[in-house]
Design a protein that fits this description.
The chain is built from 9 helices and 8 strands. It has 503 residues and is α+β, with helices and mostly antiparallel strands.
Length: 503
């Protein structure tokens, strides 16, 4: 038995996982020049994310000491990135998310299922033994007289893993369990990022709502003033119609924004695992329209969102090593590779060691005794001979599954890189756009002030004022939109540099 046990580790049918030749550049395309590290690296293989160097990794710049590339890699963030926004309400909602999100709870259950499957596979490496107690009555006129027999036995069975089939099955279960754990981690990080996105978008909609609400107040007073001037014969009815159109258009825009905000709140409730009626957003930062009392044609205070914090440095190697969906896909490749080992081991005969010991007697009272002892022990070897190509088909299917898993892994990597590249260029361009819109907003504000003053003096028609008001409103709304999109791009990039403490 000791010899057989040693033989179990002497053979494995799981092939070595080979690199598929799919490599990615060591730098993102849209990374800023100032953020690029001085790594003399040509490419990184996605299945084996180690640096493939063409020249020694040293920095020959005069203002730097000789360093390796790994020493220049920034520390990954292990603290929640949304805390950088310093928003207590967002922190409270994140705590509620962990306990109520349905996707997280479902994947937590799937992780437990995968862990149980791993334990079942590991149990096959050890002998199994039962205790059987039976009573039977039979008659055979040729050999055994009619009567009742009793037996008490403890049969044992142990499949010796000579060809590595059970070990391969264990590797399959282990890889699937690890993939489930990474799926859970990815679900948590994705849900956290989605919560930040929904929260920021809700705040942006609330700011738009306040902005449009103030403009409605301004346009109502403007319409009243224009109607009074029309009655006094100072302006024509066209000015009244234009002021009314401006008011109704803004009211319609306000109603659309209110609809968007309310639907975002409903989505936020679903994300938190509760019904909208139970969602508590009383602490959500909202502006009070009563605090501002705009007079007709006056310029009101600007509405703004917080600026996005400093963007992280995202490195290709970190994404391949720590992004959860990539790691989960890689574990599925390993599981498919181990399953191919199971299919290969099926071509060899399984060796099972069976043993049994116990008692057998026709008298129950004398069942346990030296004269009633019975035992047996012996190996069995089953060699499949003809199966109509069943094992070959299983092997070909396992190879196809492995090829499919590798391609699925490659697609996950491509999607991840697209997401990062999109948000790298978005953060860069939106910062420039925000600067341009800020300057445009200041120009629109000065233009509105000039036109209001000239209109009060009777130098320009109301059309000039209405045009200036629309330009000022559009500039504010566009700046709010750019600010929210900058925060969303920052959110995605921070998600890709976040390493959960649970992993």
């Amino acid at each position: 038995m000791v010899l057989f046990a040693v033989m179990q580790v002497a053979c494995t049918m799981v092939p070595t996982l080979k690199e598929d030749g799919f490599s990615v550049p060591s730098q993102f395309k849209e990374v800023r020049i100032s953020d690029q590290t001085h790594q003399a690296v040509e490419s990184i293989n996605v299945l084996n994310p180690t640096l493939q160097r063409s020249t020694p990794l040293t920095d020959k710049s005069p203002d730097a000491n000789t360093q390796t590339a790994s020493s220049k890699r920034p520390l990954l963030s292990s603290s929640p990135w949304w805390t950088e926004l310093k928003d207590p309400e967002l922190n409270r909602l994140q705590d509620q998310l962990q306990a109520g999100n349905i996707s997280i709870l479902q994947l937590s259950a799937q992780v437990r299922v995968a862990q149980a499957s791993l334990k079942q596979a590991e149990a096959s490496l050890f002998p199994s033994m039962n205790v059987n107690l039976s009573a039977s009555r039979a008659a055979n006129q040729l050999s055994v007289p009619k009567g009742t027999s009793y037996s008490l036995s403890a049969p044992m069975s142990w499949e010796l893993d000579v060809w590595g089939r059970i070990d391969a099955l264990t590797q399959v279960a282990s890889a699937n369990a690890m993939a489930s754990a990474w799926d859970l981690n990815q679900a948590k990080v994705s849900a956290q990022a989605l919560l930040v996105q929904t929260y920021v978008t809700t705040q942006a909609a609330a700011a738009q709502e306040v902005l449009l609400g103030k403009m409605v107040q301004v346009y109502e007073k403007t319409l009243s003033l224009t109607q009074a001037r029309y009655k006094a014969g100072v302006v024509s009815s066209a000015d009244v119609a234009l002021a009314s159109t401006q008011l109704k258009t803004t009211q319609a825009q306000l109603q659309e924004v209110v609809l968007q905000r309310k639907q975002l709140e409903h989505a936020l409730a679903t994300l938190l695992g509760t019904v909208p009626a139970k969602l508590d957003l009383k602490h959500l930062a909202k502006r009070d329209l009563a605090t501002t009392e705009p007079s007709a044609l006056d310029v009101h205070a600007l509405e703004r969102l917080p600026n996005a914090p400093e963007l992280p440095l995202v490195l290709v190697l970190d994404v391949l090593e720590f992004r959860s969906d990539i790691q989960a896909a890689k574990r599925r490749v390993e599981a498919a590779n181990a399953q191919l080992g199971v299919a290969r081991a099926a071509f060899f005969p399984p060796l099972v060691l069976s043993a049994s010991a116990g008692y057998r007697n026709t008298d129950f009272a004398s069942l346990i005794g030296a004269s009633s002892q019975a035992w047996s022990i012996g190996p069995s070897l089953v060699l499949p001979f003809l199966d109509g190509g069943l094992r070959q088909a299983a092997k070909e299917g396992a190879q196809a599954q492995l090829d499919n898993a590798v391609l699925a892994y490659r697609q996950v990597v491509l999607n991840a890189f697209q997401e990062i590249e999109d948000n790298l260029v978005a953060s860069e361009q939106l910062s420039l756009s925000a600067k341009s819109w800020s300057e445009a907003l200041q120009s629109a504000r000065r233009n509105l002030e000039v036109n209001v003053a000239q209109y009060k003096a009777g130098l320009v028609p109301f059309l000039n004022v209405a045009s200036a008001q629309s330009a000022f409103l559009n500039a504010q709304r566009s700046l709010l939109d750019v600010q929210s999109r900058s925060l969303l791009a920052w959110n995605v990039l921070k998600k890709n540099t976040f390493v959960s403490q649970e992993k």
